Amino acid sequence: MPGGQQQPPYGSPWWTDALNDPWRDPQAPSAVVLPPPAPTGGPALDPIPDPDAPRRSYTPILLICLVTALLAGGIGGTLGFVFAVRGGYVTGGGTTLGASGQEAPQSVNRAPDSLAGVAERVQPSVVTVHVTGAIGSGFVVSADGYVITNDHVVDGAGETMSVSFSDGSTASAKLVGRAPESDIAVIKVAKSGLPPVELGDSDAIAVGDSVLAFGSPLALENTVTYGIVSALDRTIEAGESGGTTRYYAAIQTDAAVNQGNSGGPLVNAAGQVIGVNSVIRSVGGTETEAGNIGLAFAIPVNQAKRIAQDIIDTGKARRTVIGAEVSGGGTGTGGAKLRSVEPAGPAAAAGLKAGDVLIKLDGHPLQDGTDLIALVRKHAPGAVVAVEYRRGTKTQSASVTLAAVTN
């Protein structure tokens, strides 16, 4: 080339035949032409392995894994055997699943103050009362065989009456006395050395307290159900058509109670009897169709104990009275209207007159005559109760000393 310069060899990126390129712009600047870069983007590709490269041996790794597995299996098996022997699951004679290595207990032990402990303690004192064509419940109150039950359980009982105990034993029984309007009766079992219940204080209970109901519902003996105290002083009038009308200022509970529970004890969490299961409310059409719907009622034990003691001591029970008769039905504005007042009775002595409407007894509101009768009978004869009453447009108060009559 002129000037002694040599052109780059053909095929070099520096090669150009600019002088012979008809498309060359003589005014265009010089440019270095480089090969295009490799494309970017798209899926990454794994490098292709070299087939001639030497291969790595896996033999040492396999040996390490094998030794580790053998050591782990041996240690785990040894520990498992040691724990099994200590737990009593493996004995010299072979393997027994679930065995403790100790003799199985004859019964399950529970703390005395647990519900199961209370049930175990009370159950021997509960009896099933068998009368002609009927079955009820009761509970032993003395070692020499006195038993409290409901009057309606023994109503119409003939000469044949018996009781059965939780251990399956039976004994004959006889009627000692009844208080029909209070629905309490006492029978005497021909057996001594019986375990009596512990009687509690029904005036000391509160709504929400835990309770157990014992008895033989639907002839299912030795049944225990659980609930709480739902209400206190729930006044109820009950009785068969043409028969005795009974009044209750009852303990309401949601423990399941059914036919056959009548006369059985209602027990608090300490194992003390606080009531006598007596009445249920049901949506059934007749009494025989009635079933538990969570509404059961018990006679307070303080009332039952007082009546039972009268029967045991004298063969008869006293009934607490206020010395007045109430009008049937409600007044429309609440309260129990006095239809008549006995001249020498407690109400007259307190200044009450016929036509007065009693609206409270010891602070308990009265809606009708049933409330007044039931609450009066809950109290013991001689008790002094405060009453509020309406006379005309005025509200007044008085203190009444309740009296007693003998059934």
UniProtKB/TrEMBL annotation:
Entry-linked InterPro entries: PDZ, PDZ_sf, Peptidase_S1_PA, Peptidase_S1C
Protein family per UniProt: Belongs to the peptidase S1C family.
Keywords: Hydrolase, Membrane, Protease, Transmembrane, Transmembrane helix
Annotated spans, Disordered: 1-52
Positions of transmembrane segments: 61-85
PDZ domain: residues covered: 311-368
SUPFAM superfamilies xref list: PDZ domain-like (SSF50156), Trypsin-like serine proteases (SSF50494)
Biased composition (Pro residues): 34-51
UniProt-recorded name of the protein: PDZ domain-containing protein
Species of origin: Actinoplanes palleronii
